[in-house]
TrEMBL record:
Entry keyword set: ATP-binding, Cell membrane, Kinase, Membrane, Nucleotide-binding, Phosphoprotein, Transferase, Transmembrane, Transmembrane helix
Keyword Ribosomal protein among record annotations: no
Localization (cell): Cell membrane
Annotated ranges, domain Histidine kinase: 251-465
The reaction(s) this protein catalyses: ATP + protein L-histidine = ADP + protein N-phospho-L-histidine
Gene3D superfamilies: 1.10.287.130, 6.10.340.10, Histidine kinase-like ATPase, C-terminal domain, Two-component histidine kinase, sensor domain
Segments crossing the lipid bilayer: 168-191
Keyword Coiled coil on entry: no
The protein's name: histidine kinase
Length: 470
């Protein structure tokens, strides 16, 4: 495998995040501009239609126009002035030069608003509370120049008063919709590469050391491409480190096994020639030689479980057959005053998983209990199925362990009692192997002290193994 150089060698880091910040600023600026433009367009198309005077108000103003027209036809200018003053609206009849026919004085603000006068059927808008509405009249005094009835709409009759809540609701919905669209585009731009990074991280954490993600990214996205190449560089370094570690363990184990085998042969030869006084010393050497061989086997086994991909071989079997196989072997190792009771569930539980790793994990816990719970102890195993999950509790009545040590109980080379482990040949790898074995099967393991004394190891794993390999 060719070695990957660090991405810093060929992709400069300077300015990457300034470009990303510029892109983000551009996205937000465009989205804000789009919100304003679309909101304005919708207001002119939709909202203005909602701001048209209701039919009842239009009819009322048309009625006023007919009354004014009748007074004009009678040429009753004095009556016209009184009629204007008596109305609920501020109104005037203006000629083409916007002078009052009745000679009544107009307020300057009214005169100013004449330039924004609207027709009866036009939308009123929502910027002026009292808009002016012009209704053309036929001038009986001078047929060549029509007159206009100009009415200042009362604020309480403005359509915006009834639609004030709706106006803000529609504008808010427009803003939220546009913001959602641009957020989706921005999220797609950001989340897609982050998803690849997340999947790669999970795969790498799951032991797939060949995981690489840079091919999912384009050099047109330098900030993410740089991050992906850094990830690939890290993954390659990790892979090389793990391979070197495994190679070292294999070489060391081979170098250790060779002299151990020679020592074993030498001890067998010496045993045949040794005197009665020399036999205890030879027996001690043999025990230490055997313990060293077991330690090497445990280290290699834990290393394989922890550092490499393992092909599992799931098969179908029942919990009763598993129980029978484990008890047949473990009860043979139990002392005279040590008992193991495995309560059978009400109904047999079918399993589809790798039986070898499950058996190994349960046997390791039971052997650990036989070693450290005492010469006169009782071990209770209970199991049940709940929500497609097998749960196992393995409880002894020994002294238990300190509460603070429960957290590190499954760490490799953890020893709760140095003197006890040394006297009984423990190296602190048994429960670490249990944890890794159950993890391979998609489960978890935990420990707790029982209320009446003793330690309880709990396992939970799926009844049906989902993935054939991890």
């Amino acid at each position: 495998m060719s070695k990957m150089k660090s991405p810093n060698m060929f992709l400069p880091f300077t300015g990457l995040f300034s470009r990303l910040q510029l892109k983000l600023f551009s996205y937000f600026a465009v989205s804000l501009l789009a919100i304003l433009l679309i909101a304005t367009a919708i207001e002119s198309v939709v909202l203005n239609q909602l701001l048209t005077l209701p039919t009842s108000t239009q009819e009322h103003l048309q009625k006023l126009a007919h009354e004014a027209k009748a007074l004009l036809e009678k040429n009753d200018i004095e009556g016209l002035a009184k009629w204007e003053e008596q109305q609920d609206f501020t109104l005037y009849i203006l000629d083409k030069n916007q002078h009052s026919v009745s000679q009544r004085e107009m307020h300057p603000h009214f005169v100013f608003k004449l330039q924004y006068m609207r027709q009866l059927q036009q939308p009123m808008g929502d910027r002026v509370r009292k808009p002016l509405i012009g209704i053309p009249l036929f001038d009986t005094l001078n047929a060549d120049f029509p007159l206009t009835l100009v009415v200042q709409l009362n604020a309480d009759l403005h359509p915006a008063q009834q639609l004030s809540g709706s106006l803000w609701l529609i504008r808010s919905l427009v803003g939220i919709t546009v913001l959602f669209l641009f957020s989706s585009l921005l999220g797609r731009y950001l989340i897609r590469p982050l998803t690849h990074l997340q999947m790669g991280t999970k795969a790498l954490a799951g032991g797939e050391l060949t995981t690489r993600i840079a091919h999912h990214f384009s050099v047109k996205e330098p900030e993410f491409y740089h991050l992906a190449t850094e990830f690939d560089y890290m993954a390659e370094q990790l892979q090389n480190s793990m391979q070197n570690q495994e190679r070292l363990l294999r070489d060391v184990s081979h170098e250790l096994r060779t002299p151990l085998a020679r020592q074993e042969i030498a001890l067998h030869l010496l045993e045949k020639q040794a005197t009665a006084q020399q036999m205890p010393l030879i027996s001690r050497f043999k025990d230490q030689n055997e313990q060293m061989a077991k330690l090497i086997d445990s280290i290699l086994r834990f290393s394989r479980l922890n550092n490499t991909n393992i092909d599992l071989n799931p098969s179908s079997f029942s919990i009763s057959s598993l129980r029978h196989q484990i008890l047949r072997d473990i009860e043979f190792e139990a002392g005279e005053k040590q008992t193991i009771q495995w309560a059978e569930p009400g109904e047999d539980i079918p399993l589809y998983t790798d039986s070898s790793y499950l058996i190994s994990a349960i046997e390791n816990v039971l052997r650990n209990a036989l070693k450290y719970a005492g010469q006169d102890c009782s071990i209770m195993v209970s199991c049940w199925a709940l929500d497609e999950t097998l749960r196992l509790d393995l409880q002894d009545d020994g002294p238990g362990i300190n509460k603070d040590e429960l957290i590190t109980l499954f760490n490799p080379f953890t020893r709760m009692d140095e003197a006890r482990h040394s006297s009984q040949g423990g190296y602190g790898l048994g429960l670490a192997i249990v944890k890794q074995s159950i993890k391979l099967l998609g489960g978890e393991v935990s420990a707790r002290n029982c209320g009446g004394g003793g330690l309880c190891i709990s396992m939970s794993l799926p009844l049906n193994l989902k993935c054939p390999s991890v």
